[in-house]
Amino acid sequence: MSARHSSLLRVRVLVERLIAAPFGRKSQRSWSAPHSADQTVNRTVRLLSWFNFFGDFRMYGPIMVIYFAQVAGSYTAAASLLAVKMLSSAAFEVPTGVLSDRLGRRGTMIAGAVVMVAAHLGYAGASGYGLLLAAVVLEGLATSLWSGNNESLLYDTLLEAGRGEEFPRHSGRVNSMFQIALALAAAIGGVVAGAWSLRVVVVLSVVPQVLCGLIALRVREPRVHGPLESNALVHLGSALRGIRRNPVLRRMTLVSALRYSSESAAQLSPVFVAVLWPLWALGLWRTFGHGVAFVGFRVSGWVIGRVGAARTLLFGELFDNVANFVALVMPTVFSPVLLGSPAYGMSTIAQQTLLQREFTDRERATMGSLASLLGSVLYALVALGAGLVADRWGIVPALLAIQAVVLIALPLARWVHAHASSLPADAETVTE
């Protein structure tokens, strides 16, 4: 009986396997692909978050000008180094965007990390102006390699998984790590500088950049969308025509550039705050500003999901302009707090969302780099003009002049909001 029972059992198991095998394999295929895509998205978001954190964890940030002046011999030399860094980033902006579209997001990200490590080694080992000059050029190159590329990496990864509508939520979380890094690095850097020296602060700042390189090696390259043009110049021309022919993208590119130019106010705002608060409180003010920005970035996906990207951008810009105007025209001890607005993070993610949805898949990074280049040019012009106004009429008129430039973005954002129906069907809907 036992032998017969065993034989029947084997036959039964064999029949069940033959019947279930096709369906089992089909079921496995149907579940494994989405599961793998979800894992890739989660992994990419996690890696980009830590990449952003370590990339901006620069303990020398608050004392960079002092360190440059100490090594180079004067504040004039230090200021010239900061100018060269901005110019080099602008000069490399478009070529690196084309490189990203043609050679891939992951490779461009790794290249930027390697160059950034070299720049920080130059800062740490510099004994004079020459090596600092080479280092700032390298940092400008690294910044341009990441500009446009890393946002494109995130968006392409989400598109590949069929989850492009989730970009605001994930981008907000990824970008919020910048603010945490800046706040922590500033506090730790001040303690280290006080206990040891400025040089030690710069040397220790090399370590986070090395970690960025290790993180970049673990990033997966998303699938390339669309055929590439025959050469780099044709590719660049195609990107320019794409911006020119798309009215929403054209206006959003200008909004992006105008908002970036307003960040020149960050260099002058401490002068205004120092009139109202004691010098020792400036560090607390910076930390508060980064903390508020962090909250804005973290909730941006939730807000955009409920009111839409275009509406978030419009009302965020309106809120910021009103708050800054009140703080400057009627200065009180509470004014510095008004300069740190949670709307900044939400407006930034809304802006990035609208841009990414209008960029073409095959020219995404190049179009982003063109927008960044225009922003860098406007930043330089606005910063120079504000400096001239500050020297002649004072710090408040200079900051108000910057606000006047940013006001130009409001009617452009309003037009985008009014024409939101021309955006893709999912442009105003975000799932949680």
Short account of what is shown:
This protein has helices at residues 2-55, 64-72, 75-103, 105-125, 129-146, 149-160, 167-195, 198-204, 206-217, 232-245, 247-261, 265-276, 282-307, 309-329, 335-338, 343-358, 364-393, 395-406, 409-418. The protein is mainly α. The termini are far apart.
Description:
This protein is mainly alpha-helical. Helix content is 81%, strand content 0%. It is built from 19 helices and no strands. The chain has helices at residues 2-55, 64-72, 75-103, 105-125, 129-146, 149-160, 167-195, 198-204, 206-217, 232-245, 247-261, 265-276, 282-307, 309-329, 335-338, 343-358, 364-393, 395-406, 409-418. Helix 7 (167-195) packs across helix 16 and helix 10 (232-245) packs across helix 11 (247-261). 46% of the residues are buried. Residues 1-5, 11-32 and 421-432 have low confidence and may be disordered.
List keywords for this structure.
432 residues; mainly alpha; disordered N terminus; disordered C terminus
